[in-house]
Amino acid sequence: xxxxxxxxxxxxxxxxxAMAWLDEWIETQTGRPSAIVFPVLVxxxxxxxxxxxxxxxxxNTRASRRLLSVAAGLGLCAAAFTPPSVAGVSxxxxxxxxxxxxxxxxxxxxxxxxSSAGVTAGAAAALFVxxxxxxxxxxxxxxxxxxxxxxxxxxxxxxKSCDIGAYFTGRAIGRHKLIPWLSPGKTWEGLFGGVALSTxxxxxxxxxxxxxxxxxxxxxxxxxMIGAMLGLVGQGGDLVASVLKRDAGFKDYSSRLPGFGGVMxxxxxxxxxxxxxxxxxxxxxxxxxxx
Length: 291
What we know:
The chain has helices at 2-30, 37-58, 65-81, 91-111, 119-146, 149-173, 188-211, 220-248, 263-285, and strands spanning 85-86, 89-90, 177-179, 183-187. It is mainly alpha-helical. The chain folds into two domains: 36-146, no CATH class; 148-291, no CATH class. The strands form two sheets. A two-stranded antiparallel ribbon has the order 1-2. Strands 3-4 form a two-stranded antiparallel ribbon. Helix 3 (65-81) packs antiparallel against helix 4 (91-111) and helix 7 (188-211) crosses helix 8. It starts with a helix and ends in a 6-residue tail after the last helix.
């Protein structure tokens, strides 16, 4: 596993950096952000749907891949592109309406089979995917549309750095299990090592942003706070994904990425850190007026 991680990991990092550069370049030419981020994320989410559908089926829940893909896509677009106001209608109302369409539409589609068995669970699965893969994934696009591609890249790298730090620290000195019934390989020592690394990278990311003229309102202390928070939340995202897998008796979502598991095993931490990163950066770079 380690050999595969050391081989595939740098390749994935290089690809993410290249995509960030290309997305930023396209924006400078066209004024449109997310030209690369959005389609790549759509592909990743569709792969994630293919991996999460068997989880539901193992739990005897109806899980049409086509329906789950539509639910995830609707959630993604609702989160990523709904403005604060649409023709005088609140953007929140638009997002909520999309959730209602997902829920009721799923009930209608499954009920067309002239059987009520599993309809409620199937509709709940569709709504879960709408939120978990769609809305949370959409925050990656929201983050990109609000900041540069390099800021998004920094958030992703800081998040994943905690995974890396936790893995190697745990292998080296890990003794005390974090949650043995859920994730036997995770240790408290690994968690502390991972958060320490993400904290350092958070500070380094802010320093690099200053060199590039970005995020001038953030200090190194802010970078440390953001890095530590993303590290902790990212580990929480990994544990949430582990709950889903273990519930269905799966070890990995798939073997699509040797050494890592599936696309979901790579996305899990970023799905939870994206909204946290957005709100932290929005609060720190656009403080609320006083007085």
